[in-house]
Amino acid sequence: MTRDNRFELPITQAELADAIGTSTVHVNRVLQVLRADGLIQTKGTQITVPDWARLQEAGEFDPLHLHLKEDEAA
C-alpha cells in the first residue's frame, strides 16, 4: 500500500536483486541513478516517488501491461 506517494520496501538490495533475477550491484546502481535523477527518495526502507508521471515516463511504463484500463492506472 502507498500513502502520500510513499511505500515501505522492507527487503535488502540483495533480496530485491534475487527476486528480480539480477545482481546486487545492478540494483544498487539503478537505485543510485533513480535517486540522482530525482525519481525516488529513500529513507531506510521507505521509498518516496515525488512525481509518479515522471517515473512512469522514465520507465516507459504502459498500464496495458497490467491489463488495466487507462483511467484505472492514474
| N-to-C SSE string, H for helix and E for strand | EHHEEH
Q: CATH topology, anyone? A: Arc Repressor Mutant, subunit A
**CATH C-level label:** Mainly Alpha
- Side by side, the strands of the main sheet go 1-3-2
Q: How many helical elements? A: 3
Gyration radius from CA atoms, angstroms: 13 Å
Uncertain stretches: none
The residue fraction in helices comes out at 25-40%
Oligomer: single chain
Query: How many domains is the backbone divided into?
Result: 1
Write down the overall geometry.
globular
Give the biggest sheet. Answer: 3 strands, antiparallel
CATH architecture: Orthogonal Bundle
Instruction: Output the structural class.
Output: alpha+beta
Distance between the termini: 15 Å
List keywords for this structure.
globular; Arc Repressor Mutant, subunit A; 3-stranded antiparallel beta sheet; 74 residues; alpha+beta
What does this protein structure show overall?
This protein has 74 residues and is of the alpha+beta class. The protein has a single domain, classed as Arc Repressor Mutant, subunit A. 38% of the residues lie in helices and 12% in strands. The protein has helices at residues 13-20, 24-36, 52-58; strands at residues 6-8, 41-43, 46-48. The chain has a three-stranded antiparallel β-sheet, with no helix packed on it. Helix 1 packs across helix 2 (24-36). The protein is globular. The model has no long low-confidence stretch (mean pLDDT 89).
